[in-house]
Amino acid sequence: MNIHEFQAKELFDKFGVPSPIARVATTPKEAYDAAKYIGVSELVVKAQVHAGGRGKGTFTNGFQGGVHLVDSPEKAAEIAEEMLGQTLVTHQTGPEGKLVRKVMVAKSVHIKRELYLAILMDRETKGPVIIASTEGGMDIEEVAAKTPEKILRERVHPLAGLQPYQVRKISEALGLTRNARAFGRLLHALYNLFIGRDCSLVEINPLVVDHDDDVLALDAKFNFDDNALHRHPDIAAMRDRDEEDPRETAAAEHHLNYIGLEGNIACLVNGAGLAMATMDIIKHFGGEPANFLDVGGGATKEQVAAAFRIILADPAVKGILVNIFGGIMDCDIIANGIVEAARETDLNIPLVVRLEGNNVEAGRATLAASSVKLENASSMTDAAQRIVKAVQAC
Amino acid sequence: MAILVDENTRILVQGITGSFGGKHARLSLDYGTKIVAGVTPAKGGQTFEHGDHKVPVFDTVSAAARETGATVSVVFVPPAYAADAILEGVDAGLDLVVAITEGIPVMDMMRVRAQMAASRTRLIGPNCPGLVTPGTGEKSHGGCRIGISPGYIHKRGNVGVVSRSGTLTYEAVWQLTERGYGQSTCVGIGGDPINGTSHIDVLKMFNEDPETEAIIMIGEIGGNAEAEAGRWAAEHCKKPIAAFIAGATAPPGRRMGHAGAIVSGGDDTAAAKKAILSECGIAVSDNPSDMADTLLKRWGKA
Fold this sequence. Notes:
heterodimer, B: 302 residues, alpha/beta, seven-stranded mixed beta sheet, 9 helices, 22% strand
């Protein structure tokens, strides 16, 4: 799950990670009031969307840039007026762009140094790792590739937690010995936030030293563990459905795991590994998968019907491949679910079904006897070849 | 022989009185597996009945193990309580804990692993289908089925299977069985980023096991476990290995169902893993329909 910049700022405030004073606004009037409240003459107005590259983005109305420096509340309101309700296109949004519903007004900072600081859950060492670098404001992967010696990786013991000597070590590596106390407070606060909210990543890039020698988090990226959201109602409440694919939202309501892709062959599969493998085999035989869709190990008839409706809501879909390995569940029940879903949705595009497993003969017979137009496949290869051919013929 | 478990292994089920745990306890009993105890806090003293089977239920794992001689536990406990359930099995000194539960917070597993560092217990999973050592009866009846795999698709034989995914494991097993090749043990290690047993651990056991003659290894995008296992196998494993890596078409940065299946940049894409495994002398299949055939070819059976 992603959150907005102003929400990251709220979390920083809650845990005591220093960052420039800021307020969120949904109208030009609110932007004006925010600027007044902050009370300085050097301000920045930033469009709030879940995408990077905002500064270099373009609005579909021609307005340039999702990040602007302003010098008065009046100017802040003017810029907010230009951005709010408009669609911002950046290199991460795709050509359709993202509608800007909120802007953040913040104090502008005079930067002396830009640094990099992140904490992530490392699967190899099975615990938190702090990553620090003097090369802030840049793509960290690029720094890692070109100058790996400029990156410090510090493991934290999962049970002992962050130790003072580790803070001193990182502080020294970042050249922050003069600001050591402030940095120590910041790093401890950040670690508490990482652990306390089940983050899988919190990245501050850049972490800056300003002209007053204050250490501040200027921009942040968070990833949270979806499995732990149930114990963090404050984080769960930050979910912005407007920023998410409506198909994925609909799927989540039916406990289906759906991810929209660019292709035209939809797939409906039980199990995440098999679902990925089904996308792979479509591609292997020259097709393009339209989605990842895992109906889970114990899919019901209702879920299959819901899955069909979600798949068919995508106008790009020209054919459907159903791949079910019914280990425990009865293939005949699934077959009936498929037939019912196809009828209910007036299916009029090619459908290929590959069923295998428990009571498969009855399931295949149900499919063959139904009035629904579909092809029975005998293996994954057969299924993929059939659907790719059928869609290419359309 | 097989690895980890065989038809004599005595198993306790944590969460046997829940619908999911109960259903799979019954299926395991039907398969001929020795389910000897159940554990559900505050339900000790009850009996879990299925046909002629009467399985005693205990309040704690240590009591269940002491009274019944169970050495292996399978965990069907909801995610919020699963970490505690695993640690209870570790505390009771079991040989093996198999965690089926999906959706355990990563930090819970981080703490479990850190706490297990000095213990003798092996953990498999979480978020896994469990493991099966097929029996010699009809449709592999009489084997050891721990978890949620369909027992009947198996056949006793000489191929070891290790995988991060459930249904994809069934697919591989079914391909083998259909072609007349049985399995020594099939191990689902689970789809979570922090788990108890990795590909390399299972490869080492298969390599030592005289009954295992060839191996299918199934992986996914995310992490470096497959690459690590491949590099080890290149040096130490003399048995033929075939591999499939799911997720060649997965978009970067998106979690593909399994919490651990996410490409986070660099060497954890399907293409990168396949290239490393090929360099390590493993036969890599690009088509999930060909997992068994790829192995049989490398094994000199086809």
